[in-house]
Amino acid sequence: MNNYKTVKLKMTVYNRLKRHKQRNESFNDLIERILNFYEALSNPDILRELIHSIQEEYGELQTMWEEKGEYS
Q1: With helix as H, strand as E and coil as C, how does 2-71 read?
Q2: Distances (CA, A) of 1 to 8, 41, 47, 62
C-alpha cells in the first residue's frame, strides 16, 4: 500500500475514533461502519490493516482519555 493511502486510512480511522467517543456508539458499530466504507476496495489486506490500525488507535485513544479523565 502506498504512503498516501496508508496516511489517509490512518487519519480516517483516527477521526472516526474521535467521533466514536462523542457519539457513544458501540465499538462494533464503529468497526462495521469503517469496514463498510472500505469494502468497495475488495482487498482483504487493506481490511486487515484497517482492523489492526483501529485496534492500535482505539487502545491509544482510550488510554489517553482515561488518563485525562475524559473517557467513561
Answers
A1: CHHHHHHHHHHHHHHHHHHHHHCCCHHHHHHHHHHHHHHHCCHHHHHHHHHHHHHHHHHHHHHHHHHCCC
A2: 11, 12, 12, 27
Domain extents in the chain: 3-21+32-64
Q: What is the pLDDT of residue 72?
A: 45
10 Å CB burial of residue 21 (0-12, 13-18, 19+) is middle
Pick the closest to residue 18 from 52, 45, 71 (CA basis). Answer: 71
Cell of 9: 486510512
* Cβ neighbours of residue 5 closer than 8 Å, sequence gap 6 or more: 46
With 0.70 as the threshold, say if the pTM is over it. no
